[in-house]
Description:
This protein is about 25% helix and about 25% strand. The protein has about 325 residues and is α/β, with parallel strands linked by helices. It has two domains: about 5-130 and about 300-315, Rossmann fold; about 135-295, Dihydrodipicolinate Reductase, domain 2 (2-Layer Sandwich). The strands form three sheets. Strands 10-11-9-12-15-14-13 form a seven-stranded mixed β-sheet. A six-stranded parallel β-sheet has the order 5-2-1-6-7-8, sandwiched between helices. The protein has a two-stranded antiparallel ribbon with strand order 3-4. α1 links the parallel β1 (about 5-10) and β2. The protein binds NADP nicotinamide-adenine-dinucleotide phosphate.
Amino acid sequence: MNKITVGVLGASGYAGRELCELVARHPAMELGFASANSRAGERVRAAGQSITLIPTDDAQLDSADLVFSALPHGTSATWVEAAASAGAKVVDLSADLRPGNGSGQRVEAVPYGLTELMRPELLDADIVANPGCYPTAILIALAPLLARSLVVKGATINVSAASGTTGAGFTPKPELMFAEVAEDFRAYSVGNEHRHLNEMRAVVSNLGGDNDILFTPHLLPVARGILATITVPVTERLTNPIQLWQEMYGHEPFIEVSDTPPSLRDVVRRNVVRLSVVHAANVRQPTLVIVAAIDNLMKGAAGQAIQNANLMLGIPEIAGLPS
Ligand SMILES: NC(=O)c1ccc[n+]([C@@H]2O[C@H](COP(=O)([O-])OP(=O)(O)OC[C@H]3O[C@@H](n4cnc5c(N)ncnc54)[C@H](OP(=O)(O)O)[C@@H]3O)[C@@H](O)[C@H]2O)c1
């Protein structure tokens, strides 16, 4: 069988390395090139293969059927354009082309790759904007309520979430050194100012919600994983709330609806969103508490990017993804 040639831009970063690993193990893909910036020339291992990272400027974009861009925001969009112009399909893992970021027709024309909600738009798409890691967990959790207009109009959705340190990328930062992170737990971007907020607000609005989101992220002293606790004021007390998620996601291979709150151990190194939901006791207004967990580098980045690429290429959606 002829394999699909894939290029990874930003392959020395956390998301890019995960992509190389998944592509190397994928039954229908082969890695054509893997690029880096300051670490060009270094060798990395993916699925037992040794790969030499080339400078991004040297990447033969026209040799690839599909390119993943795991470059930083601001840098990525130019390379996405270049790869698309060279004839490759492109999955952009940066925020550059996601809803709520940038402006203009380009963003509107590019499908948002929250796979389970946007599948029809992703089939045969030429470029897809892969979602952010926090938005993946939070929007998948909220979608069944928004689809049925069950969130109180104008109410604030409160999200307290925590991520492992790979969410911040590979670039060294003093506050991410082992001794600063280990055995500690702290909030960051406090005051509703995290860069993922615009993306979540835009998609909630696109899904029919009229709500504010109050989002407080925290830094977990682990390498990977996100756990989000989402508090949602709802219009009525539901007899069996979990049924909504079971109905919407029961057939989905990468969404797990659980009777008990998920933990990171349930999801790390897997391409899944795992979530639970209950009504909050001891409050006057009907309120749901949803807990959602993902691996930020898998369903939050590289895994979902492969899922989207599979759809764009017309191959089985689950191909090459650990269940
Ligand atoms: N980490 C996550 O959990 C996560 C989740 C979802 C989405 N994303 C998105 O995925 C993208 C990559 O994230 P990451 O965490 O993997 O970042 P990262 O670890 O910092 O890696 C960034 C990559 O881009 C390269 N790079 C940096 N500046 C460049 C430039 N000016 N020109 C060309 N290449 C350049 C780096 O190369 P050198 O190292 O060789 O300099 C590295 O390969 C970002 O847009 C991020 O928002 C990340």
